[in-house]
From TrEMBL, chain A:
<dbReference type="InterPro" id="IPR009060">
    <property type="entry name" value="UBA-like_sf"/>
</dbReference>
<keyword id="KW-0833">Ubl conjugation pathway</keyword>
<keyword id="KW-0547">Nucleotide-binding</keyword>
<feature type="domain" description="UBA">
    <location>
        <begin position="156"/>
        <end position="195"/>
    </location>
</feature>
<dbReference type="InterPro" id="IPR000608">
    <property type="entry name" value="UBC"/>
</dbReference>
<keyword id="KW-0808">Transferase</keyword>
<dbReference type="InterPro" id="IPR041974">
    <property type="entry name" value="UBC27_UBA"/>
</dbReference>
<dbReference type="InterPro" id="IPR016135">
    <property type="entry name" value="UBQ-conjugating_enzyme/RWD"/>
</dbReference>
<dbReference type="GO" id="GO:0005524">
    <property type="term" value="F:ATP binding"/>
</dbReference>
TrEMBL record, chain B:
<keyword id="KW-0863">Zinc-finger</keyword>
<keyword id="KW-0808">Transferase</keyword>
<comment type="similarity">
    <text>Belongs to the RBR family. Ariadne subfamily.</text>
</comment>
<keyword id="KW-0833">Ubl conjugation pathway</keyword>
<feature type="region of interest" description="Disordered">
    <location>
        <begin position="1"/>
        <end position="34"/>
    </location>
</feature>
<dbReference type="GO" id="GO:0008270">
    <property type="term" value="F:zinc ion binding"/>
</dbReference>
<dbReference type="InterPro" id="IPR013083">
    <property type="entry name" value="Znf_RING/FYVE/PHD"/>
</dbReference>
<dbReference type="Pfam" id="PF22605">
    <property type="entry name" value="IBR_2"/>
</dbReference>
<dbReference type="InterPro" id="IPR048962">
    <property type="entry name" value="ARIH1-like_UBL"/>
</dbReference>
Length: 195, 596
């Protein structure tokens, strides 16, 4: 069974430090803590700067003794992340996982992976080839993808907040629930209505 | 080239073995085998089997057993390699790589705080419910247990690491055992089994016996992995590839042969040679007589000569509106070739099969021969020793086996599949002649031996029995020598010069496939051999696990475990005491041991 007490504590711990790390983790819905959404800001000084990346997290039954399953739901151009599926090639999410790691530390590692690609151990061979052979093209493609996919939701979010406010919800609450469900209007509405 | 092809030579060696009338194995061709032999490792003796390796490492590095085990598992039970790493990189590096941490924690003495925060469940836990691993990391017992359970179920029992991130230390097996057995005693048992079985799974010197249903045993060999062994359950196998014993075939040849015999490739060949496919439904059609107009069951008529669809009007010599007479060289050639390959395969397969079948039939001989011998024993007072019958029978079985496997060997050795580019046609022909001469000689003598053994010699008078005896002893010697020479020829003249060194065969053993002996409880056979006899149950006795395995010394057959003559040898050998303590060579015929 998943140790939900620990997951709960992790979520609290993480929300305390949102300002510092920029990393958020929130449940996908109120029904379960087994499916979560993580959000990481693109590291400064990389083609991902300015983007906000969402990661789908599924906790296996054995969590935290088994690694969480993580996958980018925001499209990203990176040698170690599949441009098709968002699958992440990161050792700590596989055999190097340790129960002492947390969702936050894992997401920090993912963020670190964004700053330091490892093209020798690629998940996406096409991207890796480009990274090695045509680095400039790689940078601009990654930037373009960040611009197109990782900023759209944040641009659109103001409109959604506005919509919810018009429905009668306080702005701060509307914003935080939108953020916690990764910008999905309907989920945010559900969340607001239920509690 | 040696002149071993002359008949005289055979009879000479035959006569040599006649000198030692009692035992065919005292002939001059007998070569003492070197070194210790292979051992059967049973469920019970599994721990005893690894004891020697563990003790060497424990003694040299003054380690506790579980640390030694961790090191050995990391180095796949290769003690020499482990020591080489020690010399090359030093103790610290050796330990670090394997995840062994021997650090003295001074703070162990300090009174522990009443509660400790466990970093895994993020709860405050009373100190008594936490465990500090040797690496210094401390977590609560329930988290440790959960971690162990996940790892054991994940098949990682052999290397369960500490929970702390980037800590490479392997957890103390006793901690794992204790914690897991509190909630999952079955799993704790599984953990112990996995740990013990690492000695078999991760060790190139040890392999599971491939018997089905599995006898639960494993076999340990000493040096040469190209050997054939017999487990105590009776199954004989090639140690290198775990399939049935197949020398003088190499493992690769045998694998190909088995596959060839099993799948339909030859059936397919037959179809290519003997059928043509219907131009309409494409099913293969066999012509069963008549003229060249063939009708398929689908109703389509076609010309057998060219395979083209035709109308139905025809005479014996022509089909209305159809003419074909053009020679299709290519197709003919292909069919011709397929036919030749098929016949070649059939030639070798038939002979292989014939000898395998004879071998099966002759196995029944064992029973009838025993009857004949007991009849003779009752009525004949002058001739008491009938060991020649059984010796001859065993020789027949062994030679038959060699003969049978020599056919698939020849099929690949002189075929195109494996060595096409290794030999010129001329070379191939010379070698093939050389080999086939030997094979024929062997075959002829094996058949003769078979004939004499099947004869109703229990009804003969004394003189005729004596003559049969001479013949059997003589032929036994000859076939043994011939087998030996055939193996030598294969190793030195045929496989030896090949570029690719991937074809290795188990050496010929005059006494048949080596029967692995039970591991003795004192598990220090090496220590014993060096002349330092140890009492049973020697060594460290601190760990109760260590005492699990092994039978007592007195349970062991008196050193005749690896001799397949055991059951047939004259009685007096049974009580042979082992001369010179542990120096008894299991491969020596009992006679030689007696003389020593």
């Amino acid at each position: 069974m998943i140790d939900f007490a620990r997951v709960q504590k992790e979520l609290q711990e993480c929300s305390k430090d949102v300002e510092g790390s920029g990393i958020r983790v929130a449940p996908k819905s109120d029904a379960t803590l087994a499916r979560l959404v993580g959000t990481i800001p693109g590291p400064i000084g990389t083609p991902y700067e300015g983007g906000t990346f969402q990661i789908d997290i599924t906790l296996p039954d054995g969590y935290p003794f088994e690694p969480p399953k993580m996958q980018f739901s925001t499209k990203v151009w990176h040698p170690n992340i599949s441009s098709q599926s968002g699958a992440i090639c990161l050792d700590i999410l596989k055999d190097q996982w340790s129960p002492a790691l947390t969702l936050k530390t894992a997401l920090l590692s993912v963020q670190a992976l964004l700053s330091a690609p490892q093209p020798d151990d690629p998940q996406d061979a096409v991207v890796a080839q480009q990274y090695i052979k045509q680095h400039q093209t790689f940078v601009s493609t990654a930037q373009y993808w960040t611009e197109t996919f990782a900023k759209a939701s944040s641009r659109g979010i103001e409109e959604k907040v506005q919509k919810l406010v018009e429905m009668g919800f306080p702005e701060a609450q509307a914003r935080s629930s939108l953020e916690s469900v990764g910008g999905d209007e309907n989920l945010a509405l559900e969340k607001l209505c239920s509690g | 080239m040696e002149d071993f092809l002359s008949d005289d030579d055979y009879y000479d060696s035959g006569r040599d073995s006649l000198d030692g009338l009692e035992n065919e194995d005292s002939g001059p061709q007998w070569v003492p085998s070197k070194g210790p032999t292979c051992k059967v490792i049973t469920k019970e003796s599994l721990l005893a089997a690894q004891r020697e390796d563990l003790r060497r490492v424990m003694e040299l590095l003054s380690l506790r057993e579980h640390h030694a085990r961790t090191l050995l598992i990391h180095h796949r039970w290769d003690v020499e390699k482990l020591f080489a790493v020690l010399v090359e990189k030093g103790k610290a590096c050796l330990f670090k790589e394997a995840g062994v941490s021997i650090v003295e924690h001074r703070d162990l003495d300090a009174p522990p705080p009443p509660t400790v925060m466990c970093d895994i469940c993020i709860e405050d836990v009373p100190s008594g419910e936490t465990t500090k691993m040797e690496c210094g990391h401390c977590f609560c017992n329930s988290c440790w247990t959960e971690h162990f359970i996940v790892k054991i179920n994940d098949g990682q029992s052999k290397r369960i690491k500490c929970m702390a991130h980037k800590c490479n230390a392997i957890c103390d097996e006793s901690v794992v055992r204790n914690l897991v057995s509190k909630t999952n005693p079955d799993l704790a048992e599984k953990f112990d089994r996995f740990l013990l079985e690492s000695y078999i799974e991760d060790n190139k010197r040890v392999k599971w016996c491939p018997s089905t249903p599995h006898c639960g045993n494993a076999i340990r060999i000493e040096d040469d992995q190209f050997c054939e062994v017999e487990c105590s359950c009776g199954s004989q196998f090639c140690f290198s590839c775990s399939s049935e014993a197949h020398s003088p075939c190499s493992c690769l040849m045998w694998e190909l042969w088995v596959k060839k015999c099993r799948d339909e490739s030859e059936t397919v060949n037959w179809i290519t040679v003997h059928t043509k496919s219907c131009p309409k439904c494409h099913k293969p059609v066999e012509k069963n007589g008549g003229c060249n107009l063939v009708s398929c069951i689908c109703g389509q008529a076609f010309c057998w000569l060219c395979g083209g669809a035709t109308g139905r009007d025809h005479t014996w010599s022509s089909i209305a509106g159809h003419s074909c007479g053009r020679y299709k060289a290519d197709r003919e050639k292909k069919a011709e070739r397929a036919k030749r390959d098929l016949y070649r395969y059939m030639h070798y397969h038939n002979r292989y099969k014939a000898h395998t079948d004879s071998f099966k039939l002759e196995s029944k001989l064992k029973g009838t021969i025993q009857e004949k011998v007991s009849i003779l024993e009752e009525k004949e007072s002058k001739l008491r020793d009938f060991s020649w019958v059984n010796n001859g029978l065993n020789r027949l079985f062994r030679s038959r086996r060699v003969l049978s496997y020599s056919y698939p060997f020849a099929f690949y050795m002189f075929g195109d599949e494996l060595f096409k580019d290794e030999m010129t046609n001329e070379e191939r022909e010379i070698k093939q002649n050389l080999f086939e001469d030997q094979q024929q000689q062997l075959e002829a003598n094996v058949e003769k031996l078979s004939k004499f053994l099947e004869a109703p010699f229990n009804q003969y008078d004394v003189d005729k029995v004596m003559e049969t005896r001479m013949q059997v002893i003589n032929l036994s010697g000859i076939t043994d020598t011939l087998c030996q020479k055939m193996y030598e020829c294969i190793e030195n003249d045929l496989l030896g010069p090949l570029q690719l060194g991937i074809h290795n065969i188990a050496p010929y053993r005059s006494k048949g496939i080596e029967r692995a002996s039970e591991l003795s409880v004192c598990w220090g056979d090496k220590v014993n051999n060096s002349g330092k006899p140890l009492p049973p149950h020697c060594g460290s006795t601190a760990d109760p696990l260590l005492m699990l395995g092994g039978t007592t010394e007195s349970d062991q057959p008196s050193g005749s475990g690896s001799s397949d003559e055991t059951g047939y040898a004259p009685r007096k050998r049974a009580k042979t005491n082992v001369p010179g303590g542990g120096r008894f060579d299991l491969n020596l015929p009992a006679d030689v041991v007696d003389r020593n």
